[in-house]
Amino acid sequence: MSKRIVFFNHKGGVSKTTSVYNIGWELSKEHRVLVVDGDPQCNLSSLILGDGFEEYYSNPLTKYQNLKDGVEVAFKGKPQPIAPVTCASPPRAANLFLLAGHANLSAYEASLTFAQTSGNALATLQNLPGAFSELIRLTEETYNVDYTLIDLNPGLSSINQNLFLSSDAFVIPTNPDPFSIMAIDTLSEVLPRWMDWKETNFEFFEDSAYPLRSSKTKFIGMLIQRFNIRKGRAAKPYRDNIAEIKSKITNDLIPNLNRVGMALSLAQYPQELIDDEFCLAEIPDFQGLLPKSYAAEVPVFELRDDEIHETGPVFEQMSNKRNVFKVQFKELSEKLIRTLDNV
Questions:
Q1: Which among 32, 302, 305, 324 counts the fewest CB atoms within 10 Å?
Q2: pTM score
Q3: Nearest in space to 131 (alpha carbons), one of 62, 209, 204, 34
Q4: What is the dihedral of CA 89, 92, 93, 94, to 10 degrees?
Q5: Neighbours of 339 (CB within 10 A)
Q6: Whole-angstrom Cα distance, residue 67 to residue 44?
Q7: Cα–Cα distance, 282 to 298 (Å, whole number)
Q8: Nearest 5°: CA angle at 166, between 161 and 171?
Q9: What tens digit of pLDDT does each residue of 193-235 get?
Q10: Residue of 149, 171, 160 lying closest to 197 (CA atoms)
């Protein structure tokens, strides 16, 4: 069975989509990986589909192959079961599969909210909370997926809650700024409340066509991203914010997660993750490599020399930076898998 990892922070601009894209691509070198676009902005779908993005949503053969249309039969009460979605893959990552997003995904927000707050009071709503998980499960089985990575939109919506609670593990992407520090306080309160809801209501949906997944979503680390480097380390004031984020995770978030069983025991986390206060990686800004990766439709660490389109010292600087990211994302992915082995 595939392991599902959701990348979530209700704060926007913390590189959730970029994290799913880059880590999913790296993992797909040795594993079969499904990435799920749960954000109506569809940025992950745009990264994977590249220049074929608009064609995907207009072509009759692919326009209904997405997260929203995949669960339509449940949300509209149609007399047929949910079926797996046909996924797209990038030309240079054949083992990376996209369950595409949809701009109108939030149209199901009200129905799902009501279903998740009314318990089993209305039989017609009983199948909704498990619908997204069932679609993902069927798609995982179709493509023999090893790891599923889920990208969510910023916010605390019922769809985010639903996809979060259907996952085995979660990663919190952050930026070293004061707003990310404040966001951890909110997550420390909200995430245990979400899990309390699932445990309280789990039996209400056991007899539905699509029961809730029995997973308990475990914290497996955070990411700190998008900062500048000075003399080989994060520049001021990023360093102070990085230290405070790590302190908040260790001293505030982890104890609250432990209360509801959403954290692993210390013995189950890799020692290097504990030593770095649960930070999976500190990833600096991609800077000039980013537009080149967009043009080539690959992550920054997959850029070929000819795709950098520079010469002399500029090429040397960019190629060296690309190589650093290549090593960093390989190490990050390996650490992620080692931690997931204990989930």
A1: 305
A2: 0.96
A3: 209
A4: 60
A5: 23
A6: 13
A7: 21
A8: 75
A9: 999 999 998 888 888 889 999 999 999 999 999 888 777 777 7
A10: 160
Total number of residues shown for the chain: 343
Residue with tokens 């069975």: 1
Peptide bond between residue 284 and the one before it cis (omega within 30 degrees of 0): no
Burial (CB count within 10 angstroms: exposed 0-12, middle 13-18, buried 19+), residue 79:
exposed
Largest separation between any pair of C-alpha atoms in the chain = 69
Residue type, 162: N
3-state secondary structure at position 141: helix
- Among 226, 246, 245, 244, residue whose Cα is nearest residue 234: 226
Q: Is cis: bond before 173, omega within 30 of 0?
A: no
Neighbours of 219 (CB within 10 A): 23
CA atoms within 13 A on the CB side of 334: 7
Provide the 8-state DSSP code for 263. B
